[in-house]
Amino acid sequence: KIFMNTLKYLQSNEFLLDVDLWRLFANLEELNKMSLGFVSNFFEIVKEHVSNSESSMDFIFILRKYFQDDLCQTHQIYCLNYSSAVFYLENLRQREDFGIYLKWCEQNKLCKRLHLPDLLVAPLHRLTRYPLLLNNIWKRCTDEREKGFIWSVKEKVEKSIWDLEGKVKWLDNFQKFRQLHEVIIWPQVWDRDKRFFVPECLKQSLRENISENILSSTNRLLHEGRLTLAESTRLLDVYLFLFDDFLLITKIKRNKKKHGGSDTSSIPACPSLTPELQSLVREGGFCTVLDQPIPLDRLFLRNLDPLHVAVFSLRNAFLIQHENRYGQCIAVFLLQAQTETAKKTWMSQIETAISNSTKQHETKKRTIFCFPDESSGI
Predict the structure, then answer these.
(1) CATH number for region 219-254+272-367
(2) In the CATH scheme, what is the homologous superfamily, with its name and number, of domain 1-183?
(3) Distance between CA atoms of residues 237 and 191, nearest Å
(4) Phi and psi torsions of 321, nearest 5°
(5) Is 95 exposed, middle or buried (0-12, 13-18, 19+ CB in 10 A)?
(6) Fewest Cβ atoms nearer than 10 Å: which of 201, 224, 282, 351?
(7) Where does the record place the DH domain (predicted)?
(8) Could you read off the pLDDT of 44-57 as tens digits, one per residue?
(9) Across the strands, what pairs with 288?
């Protein structure tokens, strides 16, 4: 309330008007009201029973009123907005005026030295404690009818939490892929290779073939990280994305200006990104696609023997070979990891992904060609 009411006061005096209250706090006021009502009514029954031992501790009415109506639903609305709120807060904290507001609120004694992120996560923890509360009530209940009702409420709350975890995971994944669309730059074919000449009048029609669509959130990202690509005259920092159906190799660009000249230094980093990509986003950097995506069924992985390691001073290195449908090698990438453990992890992840992709392809193939027996009447 300190952070929320202070922000409301500042906005009423025409400060921080561009800060979106809903994106930051969602339905926190409604959640506070609902939670406070539940706790107040709950303890009112306890106090009445303590003062008058003849009165029954009827929790059923309270449980039915709150858990069968809006308590879990109100929590779900807040929790689904939580990741977005943290993402939005990270962006706002870079501003000097918003930083002053945060610092002033944090000095309030009621905050007990907690920062806003510490307070925003509290309702998530509250929701997970409800099943424990209900379970304790169920254990001490003597009436079988009430016992059955409390158990059904506990199961409903647990299911609500399980459903919420799936939704939050989906939202985090969606948010991550949305930022990957911003970070990964797909150069046009005439920029990637100067041998290709395309008249200006045709470039626009070719641009309409958007490459970014293959990075939709339906593609599962299995592994990612920074490696070094050994070229003929230099070593190049690259960032690899291993999906369940292809491998993408990108060059790391740490420029302050994004492709096209727009300033990205103020873009917040999605919490679901790796620390390295978060750092790259904050610096205004990006990843430029080095070559076409390598389908896993066209990818061949080779380890380097000790002789090559000694002769060419290639430590923790392995080779990725891209072949076309005719078995011709069309690209080779000699990659080096920072450690031997990182190299083994990469090779294991790629080999597993290739194996799983092959199994899925064979299963799909058998399904297509497994027709049911024809009817004798045909």
Answers:
(1) 2.30.29.30
(2) Dbl homology (DH) domain (1.20.900.10)
(3) 20
(4) -115, 130
(5) middle
(6) 201
(7) 1-174
(8) 888 887 887 666 66
(9) 185, 251
